[in-house]
Design goal:
There is one protein chain. With 646 residues, the chain is mainly α. The chain has helices spanning 2-8, 27-54, 61-90, 97-130, 135-138, 141-167, 184-188, 196-230, 234-263, 269-293, 296-305, 310-316, 322-328, 335-342, 363-390, 397-422, 433-466, 471-474, 477-502, 520-524, 532-565, 570-598, 606-629, 632-641, and strands at residues 14-17, 94-96, 176-177, 350-353, 430-432, 512-513. The model is unreliable at 1-8 and 308-345 (pLDDT under 50).
């Protein structure tokens, strides 16, 4: 029966979201309501983030996790609401297969992250109330960073498993999803294959995560309740209970609907849709309201942001936060205070890049080495670009992405190497403040884009080997264009955030950067302010981007290996593997130094400089060599470009 359905239907490339049932004629009202909720959600969570970042009193573990929760709620509300609003506005309800996959992945990624984050926040309250004397030791900076990173990392793994299992099924029935977003149970109903495994795994996986989290939260609050009841002072009991009230409220709002939705997958639309809307739209809007109404510290931070009680604020706030407040425009009456605190300092106008420590006798040799490497890198990539552009046989998705990789590697070399070479000339190690900002921004912009691009290239190889009959349809021109644009846009957003966080800090008279270029760990050491927020965000952001990309790469190659092993011909297996080896090699060359550098940001050793030289200078030089030596089509195209016969 399944076989006949697959033969009589074409493969689905897009779905139609039927939306909210029984809402005919009230689309304008729905648009206004959902838009209002979404804007209030964005405003509320952004206000909480601004208050915590700008107020030194809130730089504690509890508010660090609240920052993470705000980011999750911003993402969670952005998964379905904008698409729903766009569908009402445009009168179209279609969503591409890739868009549907993204909705399923990010919905379960952020949902699982929120679930784990509530558990970590309960543990934080347990440590604060039950072990107050050891709280700062238990919840130190590293522990907070690792707990936050662990929630994001585990959730990405959870969501990847569910999304992979959902979309490995063939879809050839109707493409109408009887829901207002792509979720597992509505989507698998359209599969023309046995869905018993995916339903069982989803039920087990989604059930185990919330149940485990709920049990841990319950255990934490039982211990907290026992500790609170032992307190003699009524005021102490009241204060201890008040610190937990907001968290308990949002936990109830989260776990109640979650239990109804995923323990009852056959729940009627009359109940399921309102519950889902409550989870996706209302809860992210309520969380910041609950935390501000129930929390005096956050309320006071908002008042200080408005300029209320500025005098009291200025006496408690460290001097290094005054320039930040002025830059953000959150406190308007600090000019006099800022002048008094900073009258003995001049604004930092430039940095000095100390570069590589080397013996004087190697000066000329190193200068010639880096100049040669840089020129050879430019020449080799220009050859690759010319070969792909001039050779019609290479006008394929694989080589389209290789062109983007060539541009990125040229940019990586150009961001770092010319300034490194200038450092061998007397006085060439200085870099202006604006130049340092630009170097840091473009380095992370290009680096993050390259990480995303490697993932897209792995996806391209997955489709070419595992879906050869549909490859031309799935990787059409529009798909290739949007995938490329997405990598650049994602890299730009990531870099803008990292750069803004780094240079919001004040920098004192020390201006010697002990590195070959302006990078986040090296520059942060010169800040005359607390850099814990920056270090945590950098660790989580860079780690999350890298680990998500690595997971997607591993999954792609796992499917590729399984598909290749099913090929009967030894020649067929060899050719399939040969198309992937170049990509695997450059991925390893990229990620090993990246892991070494950003998972140990506080380390200060000469090996860090050597690693930096390798991935900013040598890696861009090696990539085109690897692609041409391992690829017969590229070698033939380069030879034809030189006027020879392949």
């Amino acid at each position: 029966m399944v076989g006949s359905e697959m033969r009589n239907h074409t493969v689905i490339l897009e779905f139609i979201l039927l939306g909210i049932p029984h809402t005919e004629g009230i689309h304008n009202i729905l648009f206004a309501v959902f838009l209002s909720f979404y804007l209030i959600t964005l405003l509320g969570n952004l206000l909480i983030l601004s208050a915590i970042i700008t107020d030194a009193r809130l730089h504690t573990p509890m508010y660090w996790f609240l920052c993470n929760l705000s980011v999750v709620d911003l993402g969670f509300s952005s998964i379905s609401t904008p698409k729903f609003l766009a569908n009402i506005w445009a009168g179209s309800r279609t969503i591409s297969l890739g868009g549907c996959m993204c909705q399923v992945f990010f919905y379960h990624f952020l949902g699982s992250t929120e679930c784990l984050l509530y558990t970590v926040m309960a543990y934080d309250r347990y440590a604060a109330i039950c072990h107050p004397l050891r709280y700062t030791v238990i919840m130190n900076r590293k522990v907070c960073a690792l707990l936050a990173a662990g929630t994001w990392f585990t959730s990405s793994f959870h969501a990847t498993i569910l999304t992979s299992l959902t979309f490995t099924l063939p879809y050839c029935r109707t493409n109408e999803v009887d829901y207002f977003l792509c979720d597992i149970f509505p989507v698998v109903k359209l599969a023309c294959a046995d869905t018993y495994i995916i339903e069982t795994v989803s039920f087990t996986n989604i059930g185990v995560v919330p149940m485990a989290c709920f049990c841990l939260i319950l255990t934490s609050y039982v211990r907290i309740a026992i500790s609170v009841l032992k307190m003699r002072s009524a005021e102490s009991r009241r204060k201890a209970a008040s610190t937990c009230a907001s968290h308990l409220t949002v936990v109830c709002f989260f776990f109640g609907p979650c239990a109804l939705l995923y323990t009852q997958p056959s729940l009627s639309d009359v109940l399921a849709t309102p519950i889902q809307i409550f989870c996706n739209v209302v809860t992210p809007m309520l969380n910041p309201i609950i935390y501000t109404l129930r929390n005096k510290e956050v309320q006071a931070a908002f008042k200080r942001m408005k300029g209320v009680n500025v005098h009291a604020y200025s006496t408690c706030l460290p001097p290094y936060h005054y320039p930040l407040c002025m830059a953000l425009g959150t406190v308007t009456n600090l000019k006099g205070i800022q002048r008094m605190e900073c009258e003995n300092q001049t604004a930092l106008m430039y940095f000095v890049l100390l570069g590589i420590p080397y013996p004087p006798e190697l000066h000329a040799a190193l200068f010639c080495f880096f100049v040669s490497i840089y020129l050879l890198t430019l020449l080799s990539y220009l050859l690759v670009l010319l070969a792909v552009i001039c050779e019609p046989q290479l006008h394929k998705p694989m080589y389209w992405f290789l062109c983007h990789l060539s541009v990125l590697d040229i940019a990586t070399s150009t961001v770092v190497v010319p300034k490194l070479i200038a450092g061998f000339v007397e006085g060439g190690g200085t870099i202006s403040f604006a130049g340092c900002v630009s170097q840091l921004f473009f380095y992370h912009f290009v680096g993050c884009t390259e990480c995303f691009l490697y993932t897209v290239m792995a996806y391209d190889r997955f489709l070419a080997i595992c879906r050869p009959l549909h490859y031309g349809t799935l990787m059409n021109r529009n798909a290739c264009l949007w995938l490329a644009i997405g990598t650049w846009a994602g890299g730009c957003l990531h870099s803008a955030m990292e750069t803004a966080l780094t240079f919001r800090l004040p920098y004192g008279p020390a201006n010697e950067v002990r590195y070959i270029f302006c990078d986040i760990p090296a520059v942060l050491k010169l800040a005359c302010a607390d850099t814990i927020l920056n270090e945590m965000v950098t660790l989580i952001d860079v780690g999350l981007v890298a680990m998500t990309c690595v997971f997607l790469l591993l999954i792609s190659y796992m499917y590729i290996i399984l598909a290749v092993l099913k090929i009967r011909s030894a020649e067929g297996r060899r050719r399939a593997f040969s198309t992937c080896t170049s990509h695997i090699i450059i991925v390893m060359i990229c990620y090993i130094p990246l892991t070494f550098t950003y998972l140990r940001p506080g380390a200060q050793d000469p090996l860090g400089g050597v690693v930096a030289v390798f991935y900013t200078t040598v890696t861009p030089f090696l990539n085109p060599v690897i692609y041409t030596l391992r690829n017969k089509e590229m070698k033939a195209a380069v030879l034809r470009l030189g006027g020879r016969k392949a």
